[in-house]
Design a protein that fits this description.
Elements lengths: L2 H5 L3 H14 L6 E6 L4 E9 L3 E10 L4 E10 L7 H17 L12 H14 L3 E11 L5 E6 L8 E5 L5 E5 H8 L6 H5 L4 H14 L4 H8 L9 H16 L16 H13 L20 H12 L4
Helix pairs in contact: 2-3, 3-5, 7-8, 7-9, 8-9, 9-10, 10-11
């Protein structure tokens, strides 16, 4: 599996990544700068919040060394416990590619004038300075789980990831180890089928579905899992279908999912595609009582985001 293949997880994972990326280029921010004449260090603080995320980014550059650092602390209003390791690995690898390998951010919509201006301010601040370190700390709104990335360059063995579960368990590893553990290689169907660990096999088949653009493998992965209706297998099936729905611009794939007492899989599919396609009508397919959080139902949040995104696709 190539590095690019490893980045594709879809669904919730991509939604989380998009929230973080958009927050760095958000519409609302406060900006503070100061210059220390003794060490020629400049700092800038950017803040962003909406109904999904609240985040503060700290930029620092040394004018003598021509180097810059970035640190971001944020909270996400999403439950990612069931795919925490996959979300963290995908996110950290993506940040590495953006900040140290020059990969372009693939916007799902045309950036607004405010976003373009914000990006210009960030680019103007960092300029052509070498980025020497990027730290990202993200937690869910209950502060009980989350992950962090410490990135220092292109070498995955030197970049690290820390996971913190709801139970307080902390796991620390380098990104190369994380890729090997959470994104096993999938060169062929026989390679996936030969895996004896059910979770490894499921991950392998889902990755292969997206790599080979074979939607039938989404269902194969689900059917071969030990608990198709439980997490993380049902979530991965949802993510796999949403990947193809986005690629083919086909919201009818959401009909292959069902809302359950555990999670509104179909409704979440419509919500994500509404955001992706700037299609407010998809929000109307979400039941009024589909849950999200204490402040909003899923339908209410979908309609709010649709209004915010109007004219941006």
């Amino acid at each position: 599996m190539t590095n690019k293949d490893n980045l594709i997880l879809g669904g919730i994972v991509l939604a989380v990544i998009l929230v973080v990326i958009v927050s760095l280029l958000g519409l609302y921010y406060t900006n503070t700068q100061k210059l220390n004449s003794e060490d020629e260090t400049e700092t800038e603080t950017l803040t962003f919040s909406d109904n999904l995320v609240s985040e503060t980014s700290y930029l620092e550059k040394n004018n003598n060394l021509k180097q810059a650092n970035i640190k971001t602390d944020g909270k996400i209003n999403l439950d990612i416990s069931h795919i925490l390791a996959e979300t963290a690995t995908t996110s950290c690898i993506l940040y590495q590619k953006i900040f140290f390998e020059g990969e372009e951010i693939d916007f799902s919509h045309a950036p607004s004038e405010e976003e373009k201006e914000y990006l210009k301010k960030m680019n103007d601040f960092i300029g052509d300075y070498e980025i020497t370190q990027v730290i990202v700390n993200l937690k869910t709104s209950n502060n009980e789980e989350g992950f962090s990335c410490v990135l220092k360059g292109k070498d995955e063995t030197q970049n690290t990831m820390t996971l913190i579960t709801k139970d307080g368990l902390t796991t620390y590893m380098d990104l190369n180890q994380a890729k090997q553990q959470f994104f096993p290689g999938s060169n062929s169907l026989s390679d996936c089928e030969s895996r004896t660990n059910p979770d490894d096999k499921n991950l392998c088949l889902n990755a292969l579905a997206e790599k080979n653009l074979d939607i039938d493998l989404c269902k194969t992965a689900l059917d071969s899992s030990p608990s198709p209706t439980e997490f993380p297998y049902a979530e991965r099936y949802q993510s796999c279908l949403i990947f193809f729905a986005k690629m083919d611009k086909d919201s009818s794939l959401c009909n292959l999912l069902e809302d359950t007492s555990r999670k509104p899989f179909k409704s979440q599919c419509y919500d994500q595609l509404s955001f992706e396609f700037c299609d407010k009508s998809l929000c109307e397919k979400i039941p009024d009582d589909a849950p999200l959080n204490d402040a909003y139902t899923l339908k209410e949040a979908c309609l709010i985001r649709a209004d915010q995104r109007e004219g941006q696709c």
